[in-house]
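quick q for whoever's on today - can somebody do inverse folding on this one?? i tried earlier but teh output was garbage lol. tokens:
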């Protein structure tokens, strides 16, 4: 098990890696503050970089080779040929204070093909964000968790009965019961010391292991389903933001980082990869609402 640089492009705030396509070789992530969508194909080495006029909180693969993009102004489903479908806005159920602008942050598609997406204030003002669920047809939005500070890592257990969630400024990984109707019965699974090292993105492997990225912590840690620490991957940069499995057999873990507040490190903001000895779960694809 050795850590390698996967992509040398430096992201100001790299986030939200995903895998899709044949053999899960299409790796995609965003640079939120750099306002970019980045991809790299494992089979060909081809890279793309798409600039945006606004921050992109998340980018997720959709059905029919589409994309779900969480722009600062709202989320869209974009088809392979460029057609756009506006998804419901959180402001329809939680009006925001114009003095505290809010944007989308981390998101994933649930086992029932619903979009689970969180928000946060641009300036990280506490408790103005939330976690929301958008229906598979792209027409309805529901609030799941309110008074969120920085909505971050989220994923589901392999048996699809548990939902794991990180609100960074709570310094916990919470676990919820999960079914098609939503989440319930929240409990604190893992607690972290409150300070400068903060839990950020997260993914769950095929064995139920919970991988947590630590901003300002120079590491990625794996916990078992009971919350016990089972592995630590030390990183050569400070700000580890998120992680996702991809590639053949989903056996490679891709790790995004941020150059912000770590500008002097020549590798900060790069994307890394490692084969940790376990495989990941397949990403769920959001349905094409234009079909």
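ok took a stab at it. sequence:
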């Amino acid at each position: 098990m050795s850590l390698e640089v996967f992509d040398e492009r430096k992201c100001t705030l790299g986030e939200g890696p995903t895998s899709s396509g044949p053999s899960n070789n299409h790796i995609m992530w965003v640079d939120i503050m750099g306002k970019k969508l980045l991809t790299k194909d494992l089979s060909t080495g081809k890279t793309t970089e798409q600039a945006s006029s606004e921050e992109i909180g998340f980018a997720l693969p959709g059905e029919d080779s589409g994309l779900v993009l969480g722009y600062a102004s709202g989320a869209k489903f974009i088809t392979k040929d460029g057609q756009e479908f506006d998804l419901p806005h959180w402001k329809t159920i939680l009006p925001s204070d114009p003095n505290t602008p809010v944007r989308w942050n981390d998101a994933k598609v649930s086992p029932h093909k619903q979009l689970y997406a969180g928000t946060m204030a641009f300036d990280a003002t506490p408790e103005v964000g939330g976690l929301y669920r958008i229906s598979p047809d792209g027409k309805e939005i529901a609030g799941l968790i309110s008074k969120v500070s920085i909505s971050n890592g989220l994923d589901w257990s392999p048996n699809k009965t548990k939902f794991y969630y990180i609100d960074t400024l709570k310094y916990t990984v919470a676990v919820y019961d999960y079914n098609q109707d939503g989440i319930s019965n929240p409990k604190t699974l893992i607690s972290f010391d409150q300070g400068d090292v903060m839990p950020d993105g997260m993914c769950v492997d095929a064995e139920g292991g919970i991988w947590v990225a630590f901003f300002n912590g120079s590491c990625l840690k794996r916990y078992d389903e009971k919350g016990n620490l089972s592995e630590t991957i030390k990183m050569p940069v400070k700000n580890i933001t998120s992680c996702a499995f991809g590639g053949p057999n989903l056996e490679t873990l891709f790790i995004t980082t941020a150059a912000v507040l770590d500008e002097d490190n020549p590798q900060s903001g790069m994307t890394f990869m490692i084969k940790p000895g376990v495989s990941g779960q397949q990403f769920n694809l959001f349905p094409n609402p234009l079909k």
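fwiw The mean pLDDT is 96. also Residues 25 and 43 are 6 Å apart (CA to CA). so keep that in mind when u check it
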